[in-house]
Amino acid sequence: MNTSPVVPDAEHETVPIATNDDVVRARQLVRTLAQRCKLSLVDQTKLVTAASELARNTLVYGGGGVMRAGLVRRDGRAGVTAVFEDSGPGIPDVEQALTDGWTSGGGLGLGLSGARRLVDDFVLDTEPGSGTQVAVTKWAR
Amino acid sequence: MAYAASDRSQGPEAEGANPVTKQDISARLAELLAEQQESLGGAWVEAVARTLRGRISLAELDRELRELYAALIQGLRGDGLDWQGDAYAELRALLAELSRARARQGFTPTETATSVLAAKDVLAPADDTPAEDIRSYLQLSKLIDALGLFTLEVYAKTREEVISAQAEQLMELSTPVVKLWEGVVAVPLVGTLDSARTQVVMEKLLQALVDTGSDQAIIDITGVPAVDTEVAQHLLKTVVAARLMGADCIISGIRPQIAQTIVALGIQFGDIVTKSSLADALKHALRQNGADITRSGGTA
Q: Does the beta-carbon distance from A108 to B264 stay under 8 Å?
């Protein structure tokens, strides 16, 4: 794991996530950033899909929240970071939540675990009763 | 208010024993406005015409604003400064009409609100206006602000209506089911696939299968920018529903980046036939139907 500091490149944008339309907006913002960061088409699609999953999790399981996204830099490499935050019920069993096929709702149970595989850095911070924060980053090659 | 505290104030309200009531203020305002209806109305039309820069005919603007002006006097006489009162019903109706028309014609919110708020500049007191009338003007100014906000609210609502109407149209337009061949129908999907749209797609596709007597359905996702678990789940449900009706379903238009993303996400399409292009899917569907595909001069 690379421990060099991640430096934000300019101001990060915030998108509230309260409706399905907001999920689309969050996705569009991440796509724009990914294009600006010159990620490859595959990486763009992967990051956008991960953002889509996490935004929907924020909405459906976290009861809504915000996404902050922007360009970052580490050791001279550019990347895109998106942080999803909600103050919902939190995740009681993180291991279980990250297991393929496990869902507390009606989904396929691949959102959270799939999102982790789609990005380079994945940090999940949660506590039952006080919300969940997921930060994901994709670095340009 | 500074004017009330000032010793230079004139009239009986200076003693504070007999303050001017709201009725007096509105009666005075109505009187002042009626007195100068011709000149002030003209100045208002002129001020607004400047901001709209000829995008609306002067005659029309003149008619609109003079109607508003008359309705304002009527409101002041009937209900004083309470713009939500019955006497203001006509003014509100006129404002709503103006606002809707502006929203439809593509005027900006600022331009729309300025039509109302410009009245404040026109009615602004001169240097020699008595303090009493200045106080009345401040009340009127508040009233006009409220009316300006009302106008903006109607404007926003109208725009929202236009947007939701367009969204509905888009929903209908963006999910055509086309017959590609005898026994083969296809739905080219474009854009974001959410629950509401999937529902429309599914209904249309299943109905088309019955109507055309087809047993091959192709869902083309070339135009879907990202396939996440929700979209995949919707697609899977549609395929299962088509199968229940005895039809085979093919998903086509899977681009390289989508394929890699689906693999990383861990989505299983199971035994569903998937193809990278619509042409391949059609070929497959025709073979399934027992058709021979030959090219003149050789086999395809």
A: no
Write down the pTM of the prediction. Answer: 0.63
User: What is the residue range of A108's domain?
Assistant: 9-139
Residue B118 and residue B51 in contact, taking contact as beta carbons nearer than 8 Å = yes
| C-alpha to C-alpha distance for B115 and B144, rounded to whole angstroms | 11
Separation of alpha carbons B161 and B167, rounded Å:
10
In whole angstroms, give the CA distance from residue B272 to residue B274: 6
Confirm or reject contact between A138 and chain B (CB < 8 A).
no
* Of the partner residues B256, B260, B267, the one whose CB lies closest to the CB of residue A110: B267
As a whole number of angstroms, the distance between CA B210 and CA B193 comes to 24
Residues B16 and B38 in one domain: yes
Closest A-chain CA to B236: A108
CATH of the domain at A85: 3.30.565.10
Q: Are B243 and B236 in contact (CB under 8 A)?
A: no
pLDDT tens digits for range B159-191: 888 888 887 777 666 678 899 999 999 999 887
Asked if the C-beta of A77 comes within 8 angstroms of chain B's C-beta atoms, the answer is no
Distance from CA of A117 to the nearest CA of B (A): 6
Tokens found for residue B51: 């901001």
The alpha-carbon gap from A19 to the nearest alpha carbon of chain B, in Å, equals 12
What domain range includes position B11?
Answer: 2-170
ipTM of the complex model? 0.80
